[in-house]
Specification:
Blueprint lengths: L2 E4 L3 E7 L6 H4 L23 E4 L8 H10 L6 E4 L5 H13 L4 E4 L2 H7 L4 E4 L3 E4 L2 E4 L1 E2 L9 H7 L5 H17 L4 E3 L3 E3 L7 H12 L8 E3 L16 H16 L24 E2 L2 H11 L10 H8 L1 E3 L13 E4 L10 H12 L5 E4 L8 H14 L6 E2 L15 E4 L2 H11 L8 E4 L6 H11 L9 E6 L1 H10 L1 H7 L3 E4 L17 E4 L2 H11 L2 E4 L2 H10 L14
Length: about 550
């Protein structure tokens, strides 16, 4: 049955996206054009369209980017999904609820979705979806299905203040859409909405702070869009730097810690197995569920703050044990000579093989990946899958959960890795920038890169930048690694990351960049409008010295 999740009356042309889309990093934030170079609908525009896709994928920031598109009058008229979807749905809800920019959201059955996809245009009313000869009645959501505590109801009635009331309205509306029966307590929150992807993010945060919003559980913050202490000296213009820094300040004002990292699992106080948390930032969500065994759905921007203000989240998704079971088994063999590039490549390929479900990866039981390897895998996995977690047999803490009934099998081969290497290496071999730290570099990665650069120096025509969190910066300052990196000509930038960096901190003269990150290799063409080379950390060190990237895949991949 067709269901109206967010109501709005619209009429317009249909754009069918064959795959899920990360609106952040995949759509230009002011024009609405799809800039994800790997997406089948690359170059198409969402603006003024009724956009269909199976579900969204990628970054939790998509909700805020959608709100920004609404502010820029470049938003879609409606979003129609075939599967459950939270990130863009929340952005549409906020757009209409707080800012009077309605965007309809519908969820259809598979048959209804397939029939609508054949039509050139559609009309959505409060009660019906009409397209061609089709007329579907729209079910509406009933709030009566959600059980609330007395404290929940008090917040909903405004007894805890206007900000908490709005937060609970957002949580309960989305909980009903998700089919949750009740809410749960969470012990900590990680905010992703502090990235200044558009002025809409500051407008939302400032409006909540001005309403007296204060977090009620320990809350950390994602990487932001500037080096908070140094952006002026780095040449960032006030028109951007002030907005980005004020956005961060608004969340600190509301009680969040100024951690400014996209890798909160690197902090000393990290979640434990079985702990219910509420994290945004896709790579962190995947790492928390998969590697730490904590419980969190992929919370969208704005939902993260709502939960931080109330300490409550919908009991849905992978908060439920039954929903953590793998539904696809991926077989892979790691070549004995494979380098560290294997892990981000595997993450990207696993996400592509399981774009809408939790996989169990088999065949790596004796591989002993490091925490940095697993971080790279989770970061890349989130670019191609909407799933909030994965399992790796013999490695991750819940890999012994029996697969769900009907779980199918796929196999990844050297051909898949070779094809991905070619996809990630479409730039020329001359590189002007080596980009490291997506997700944020750990102290051990910094030390390893310092070892690789020991006794040498970054080339005169190359810029090499490591992005990291404040806690990691403090650690490498104390142990001397920072001094070693800087002696080799490596720039170290805290607070921001490659997914939020902008010129002139991103070197404007760059034509081709090199990275060891599968996540950034995926997003960089659309975010930076540059071509990319990808390789191991050792190959990045060699490129930093010579300005040249390898022209052929490593021996462990070979040629197709």
């Amino acid at each position: 049955m067709a269901t109206s999740i967010v109501a709005a009356q619209v009429q317009g042309p249909i754009l069918v996206c064959e795959e899920g889309l990360s609106v952040w990093g995949g759509v230009h934030p002011s024009s609405g054009q799809i800039v994800d170079a790997h997406h089948p609908q690359y170059g198409q525009s969402l603006t003024g369209k009724i956009v269909m896709m199976p579900t969204s994928r990628g970054s939790c920031t998509g909700s805020g980017v959608l709100l920004g598109l609404a502010f820029a009058e470049a938003a879609p008229l409606a979003l129609i999904f075939r599967e459950n979807e939270d990130i863009l749905t929340l952005g549409a809800l906020i757009s209409g609820l707080l800012f009077d920019h309605p965007i309809a959201v519908l969820r259809l059955s598979a048959d209804e979705y397939d029939a609508l996809a054949k039509e050139p245009s559609a009309e959505i009313t409060e009660t019906h979806l009409k397209a061609g000869s089709h007329i579907w009645s729209l079910d509406s959501l009933s709030p009566d299905t959600l059980s609330l505590s007395d404290t929940d109801r008090a917040m909903l009635d405004g007894e805890k203040g206007e900000a908490a009331q709005i937060a609970m309205q957002i949580i309960t509306t989305m909980a009903v859409a998700q089919g949750a029966s009740d809410l749960i307590d969470v012990k900590r929150v990680h905010i992703d909405g502090c990235i200044y992807a558009s002025p809409a993010f500051l407008t939302f945060a400032r409006s909540m702070a001005d309403k007296g919003a204060r977090v009620c559980v320990p809350t950390t913050m994602n990487a932001i869009s500037v080096d908070h202490q140094n952006w002026r000296s780095q040449g960032v213009e006030d028109s951007f730097g002030l907005g980005a820094s004020r956005l961060a300040d608004a969340y600190v004002e509301m009680g969040a810690r100024a951690t400014f990292t996209c890798a909160p699992y690197l902090l000393e106080d990290k979640p434990v197995k079985g702990e219910d948390i509420a994290w945004a930032e896709s790579n962190a969500v995947i790492y928390a569920n998969s590697i730490l065994g904590a419980h969190t759905v992929k919370h969208a921007d704005f939902m993260d703050l709502s939960i931080a203000l109330t300490g409550r989240a919908a009991r849905t998704g992978v908060y439920l044990a039954a929903n953590r079971a793998p539904r696809r088994i991926i077989e892979v063999t790691k070549p004995s000579e494979a380098d560290d590039a294997f892990w981000p490549m595997l993450g990207w390929l696993a996400g592509q093989a399981a774009p809408d479900r939790i996989p169990l990866i088999r065949g790596l039981e004796d591989s002993a990946p490091s925490e940095d390897d697993l971080k790279a895998l989770c970061g890349a996995y989130g670019t191609t899958s909407a799933s909030p977690m994965l399992h790796i047999a013999g490695i991750t803490p819940e890999a012994d959960i029996p697969p769900a009934g009907g779980a199918d099998h796929v196999r990844l081969t050297k051909v898949d890795f070779a094809n991905l290497w070619a996809l990630f290496n479409q730039g020329v071999d001359r590189v002007e920038l080596v980009a490291l730290g997506s997700p944020h570099f750990s102290a051990s990665e910094c030390a390893r890169f310092a070892d690789l650069m020991e006794g040498s120096h970054v080339g005169s025509d190359v810029t090499t930048i490591v992005t990291l969190g404040r806690s990691t910066l403090a650690a490498i300052t104390e142990n001397g690694v920072k001094a070693r990196l800087e002696a080799a000509g490596v720039r170290i930038i805290a607070d921001l990351c490659w997914c939020s960096i902008s010129e002139p901190v991103f070197p404007p003269n760059t034509k081709t960049l090199m990275t060891n990150s599968g996540k950034y290799a995926h997003y960089a063409p659309g975010l930076s409008n540059r071509t990319v080379r990808f390789g191991s950390l050792q190959q990045c060190a060699e490129a930093a010295k010579s300005g040249r990237a390898p022209t052929s895949p490593p021996d462990w991949i070979g040629r197709v």
